[in-house]
């Protein structure tokens, strides 16, 4: 997950204005929580239950998603990405990462 964390850290400035807490749940591989409620988004180790939106995705697919090699809508449609919580936050996150 360390390589994914580095990639996510590079994308954090793009998430200014998201005004939400988002979690990427990779099951047994772990999870990443992004708190974008403040002026500067940050990665936290908070409990996922506090997230406005939880994106359940396998680690390999998350790597592809962050690298821009997997379209979020296609991943959702194909069942590679499951969303729990706010669909609006998920859509906003998707548009901010493009």
Please tag this protein with its features.
globular; 98 residues; SCP2_sterol-bd_dom_sf
Structural account:
It contains 4 helices and 5 strands; from the N terminus they run αββββααβα. With 98 residues, it is α+β, with helices and mostly antiparallel strands. A 5-stranded mixed sheet has the order 3-2-1-4-5. Helix 1 runs parallel beside helix 2. The radius of gyration is 12 Å and the shape is globular. The model has no long low-confidence stretch (mean pLDDT 92).
Question: How would the blueprint of this fold be written?
Answer:
Elements: H1 2-11, E1 21-25, E2 31-35, E3 42-44, E4 53-57, H2 59-67, H3 72-77, E5 81-85, H4 87-97
Parallel strand pairs: 1-4
Antiparallel strand pairs: 1-2, 2-3, 4-5
Helix pairs in contact: 1-2
Provide the helix percentage. Answer: 25-40%
Number of helices: 4
Structural class: alpha+beta
Main sheet: which strands, in order across?
Answer: 3-2-1-4-5
Whole-number mean pLDDT: 92
General form: globular
- Give the terminus-to-terminus CA distance: 22 Å
Are there runs of 5+ residues with pLDDT below 50, and where?
A: none
Whole-number radius of gyration?
12 Å
Number of strands: 5
Amount of beta strand: 15-25%
The biggest beta sheet reads: 5 strands, mixed
Name the helix and strand elements from N-terminus to C-terminus, one letter apiece. Answer: HEEEEHHEH
Organism: Thalassospira xiamenensis M-5 = DSM 17429
Protein name: SCP2 domain-containing protein
GO cellular component, one term: cytosol
Pfam families: SCP2
């Amino acid at each position: 997950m360390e390589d994914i964390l580095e990639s996510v850290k590079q994308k954090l400035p793009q998430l200014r204005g998201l005004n939400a807490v988002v979690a990427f749940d990779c099951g047994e591989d772990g999870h990443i929580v992004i708190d974008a409620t403040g002026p500067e988004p940050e990665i936290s180790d908070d409990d996922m239950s506090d997230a406005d939106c939880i994106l359940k995705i396998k680690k390999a697919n998350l790597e592809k998603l962050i690298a821009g090699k997997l379209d979020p809508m296609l991943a959702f449609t194909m069942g590679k990405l499951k969303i729990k919580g706010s669909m609006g936050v998920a859509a906003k996150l998707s548009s901010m990462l493009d």
